[in-house]
Design goal:
heterodimer, A: alpha/beta, D-Maltodextrin-Binding Protein, domain 2, 2 domains, B: 4-stranded antiparallel beta sheet
Chain lengths: 342, 242
């Protein structure tokens, strides 16, 4: 009953503060949209240099596949690759085509490989697969990194905005004196925390659904698994962010100090959650990711969205996220003791 | 302890770190009186009333409210508290704020509606209930805060500087309201640093630097010190040479 009072109040406040409501829903969509423009934009038109020994038919087929084809000698091609005026150079090594890629831009690599494969496919539609020798000037053919962006970004934006809004609104409760007012009532500490979790929970379910739908259906993000699982994970991430945000707000004196938690709490999670490859990092540093909620959220979202996996592959992440939320909630109830022992 | 007493403060001290904010205060508040805590800002009035309300706890000593040792959640249900700052949700309308606090105190349905109408009437805000609170003037917010603390018909009403920053006309109307509430049997503890307000209390406690320097009715305090005003009495008890 009393918890319900808090829940109703929080939801009412949300719909009164249109800007925050908008920020929670449209800001993540907007940023995802920008990311979409930057990374997926127009189909990339690769510049491919072709040696004289490549058969004319192949050159014609390449030209058809939207590639920008130039006849160059091997010497010139080397230079142009280094200067990034060419994305790739194609020559024949006996009967096997040999492709050299500049390699630093995953988008370009993908486009080149597609063009070349298409070109050869159209020449030999038989089932014999194309034997292609590829070498990279820079980088490697590991482009999964790029494919991994989407799910991590969805998780990140939900986490970030919920953390900030929940933290600030709980902080306001303190600075406005309403927390003290609440603590002058027979309300128990856990009831305040529960009220916040449920009130925000209802709202974040709505927010997470909209954002996931937008990313998957409108931005056409790769989606192999079940949408319901995506909702489950984004909901749990939001819960973790909410409980962490309200917990940390106890250690901030004003909104600005709440924002100071972003570089301390949020930004490190971007680096460790799998957006960037951790293989090259020192093992002890890599293990830092174990304590970061976003690691589990991002991992689960990737399992669902990219690998199309189900419950058995995300169960562990789900339990960990639930554990984080519960832990933060309990700490929250304890932290409120600072204001009233009972 | 006699039944006629509502609040007992027994040898209460409160320290924050090394700083002693309340130093060995003992006093009693009778049932159905308006009891004033008079003292300059920083004297420890807020700390003392917060302990009475059950938000804060004494470092040493005990406080009994309605015969229960504080803090106690059961007793807090019977206390109305109005903090120094207007603890209201600005985005919500006055009605929604009252609905929220009423629900926290367990009032629902018809009873809730009825109480909201009553308290709104009492503080003269009935016409403005549908306005968002951030459009309220300072005085309206104070009155709404007062209304919120009266919703659950508390036996004890604790008010921390209810009239600070309020114009004289409104101040008078708030005191009239308090008198009306008192006549219904509510015990009221009110802090103030305005000396002429103190005259309106049945009894007064003068506090300076966390110590109780005098307790009594305004007339007694003035008579004891041969002063014309409460202010002179305060100066006398405070140790100033007149």
């Amino acid at each position: 009953m009393r918890v319900r009072a808090i829940v109703v109040r929080i939801i009412r406040q949300f719909f009164r503060d249109k800007r925050t409501l908008g920020l929670m829903i449209f800001a993540p969509m907007f940023v995802l949209f920008l990311m979409h423009l930057v990374f997926n934009g127009e189909e990339y038109k690769p510049a491919i240099g072709v040696n004289q020994d490549v058969p004319n038919v192949v050159v014609e087929a390449l030209e058809k596949s939207k590639a920008d084809v130039k006849q160059v000698t091997r010497e010139k091609a080397k230079d142009q690759l280094h200067e990034q005026r060419l994305d790739a150079f194609l020559e024949m090594d006996g009967r096997i085509p040999k492709l050299t890629l500049e390699g630093s831009d995953p988008t370009a690599n993908k486009a080149v490989l597609m063009s070349v494969q298409q070109a050869f496919q159209s020449l030999a539609p038989q089932k014999e697969t194309l034997k292609l020798k590829t070498t990279y000037l820079h980088g490697s053919e590991d482009m999964k990194l790029f494919d991994n962006f989407g799910p991590v970004l969805i998780g990140f934006f939900i986490f970030f905005f919920v953390f900030l809004i929940a933290g600030v609104s709980f902080l306001r409760e303190r600075t406005n004196g309403t927390l003290e007012r609440l603590l002058a009532t027979p309300l128990q500490r856990w009831e305040i925390v529960a009220g916040y979790v449920i009130g925000f929970g209802i709202f974040t379910t709505f927010q997470a659904s909209l954002i996931s739908w937008f990313a998957i259906d409108i931005l056409d993000m790769m989606m192999e698994g079940s949408f319901l699982y995506v909702l489950l994970i984004t909901f749990l991430l939001a819960m973790t962010a909410l409980t962490l945000g309200t917990l940390l707000s106890a250690f901030a004196h004003n909104e600005l100090q709440m924002i100071q938690f972003i570089p301390l709490v949020i930004v490190p999670q971007i680096f460790f959650s799998g957006l960037f490859n951790l293989e090259t990092m020192a093992p002890w540093l890599r293990s830092v990711s174990v304590i970061m909620p976003l690691t589990y959220g991002a991992d689960a979202l990737r399992e669902i969205m990219i690998r199309g996996n189900g419950w058995s592959d995300i169960a562990f992440d789900v339990y960990i996220l639930l554990g984080f939320s519960l832990l933060f909630m309990i700490l929250n109830v304890i932290a409120l003791k600072k204001y009233r022992r009972l | 302890m006699p039944e006629s007493m509502c609040i007992h403060v027994e040898h209460v001290s409160r320290s924050f770190g090394k700083k002693k904010v309340i130093d060995d205060v003992t006093l009693e508040v009778g049932r159905g009186e308006i009891f004033g805590l008079l003292g300059p800002s920083g004297a420890g009035k807020t700390t003392l009333v917060k302990m009475m309300a059950g938000i804060d706890e004494a470092t040493t000593g005990t406080i009994y409210v309605l015969n229960t040792k504080m803090p106690s959640l059961q007793t807090m249900q019977r206390i109305g508290f109005m903090a120094q700052s207007d603890a209201l949700y600005g985005e919500l309308t006055a009605l929604e704020n009252l609905q929220f606090f009423a629900a926290i105190y367990g009032l629902k349905g018809k009873k809730q509606k009825q109480r909201i109408e009553e308290v709104a009437e009492l503080v003269n805000l009935t016409e403005h209930l549908r306005k968002p609170v951030h459009n309220y003037s300072g005085g309206m917010k104070r009155r709404l805060s007062l209304a919120a603390s009266l919703l659950h018909e508390p036996d004890v009403l604790i008010l921390d500087e209810p009239t600070v920053g309020i114009d004289p006309v409104l101040r008078q109307s708030i005191w009239q309201e308090l008198e009306r509430v008192r006549q219904q049997g509510t015990t009221i503890v009110v802090t103030t640093h305005v000396m002429d307000e103190a005259e309106k209390c049945q009894r007064l406690a003068m506090i300076r630097n966390g110590r109780l320097i005098a307790v009594g009715s305004p007339a007694e305090l003035k008579a004891k010190t041969n002063s014309q005003t409460i202010e002179q009495a305060f100066l006398y008890f405070g140790g100033a040479k007149l």
